[in-house]
UniProtKB/TrEMBL annotation:
Origin superkingdom: Bacteria
Lineage: Bacteria, Pseudomonadati, Bacteroidota, Bacteroidia, Bacteroidales
Protein name: Uncharacterized protein
Alphabetic keyword roster: Membrane, Transmembrane, Transmembrane helix
This protein's record includes keyword Membrane: yes
Amino acid sequence: MIEIVSLILNLLLGSGLILFYSQHKRKQAAEASSAELDVRRNEFDIHRQSVEFLSRQLSEAYTEIDRMQDIINDKRLQILDMLRRTNQLEIDLLNQETIRKKLKMSTCRRADCAEREVENE
């Protein structure tokens, strides 16, 4: 009879320990899962902040690029205008030289010519 009582007590105590151990194990698993979830949330927040920071940096870089492109375009227009003016001056100079040569060729060189022009030197 004592053996039966001992066996029953062992079963009850053993199953109680097993039940306590399994509950403790489930509690630890839940805590570990919760801690892992917190770590993943923190990692996500860090990545989100990094993405936001990089997005702001990229936006600022694009703004700076646009500003520099505007400056380059203005300088390009100035250069094109100077080239146009230089070309026009070269054309004017060539025209002046052509006119001067024509005048020189059309001037009478004879001393007794009525159309002779006196050159001022």
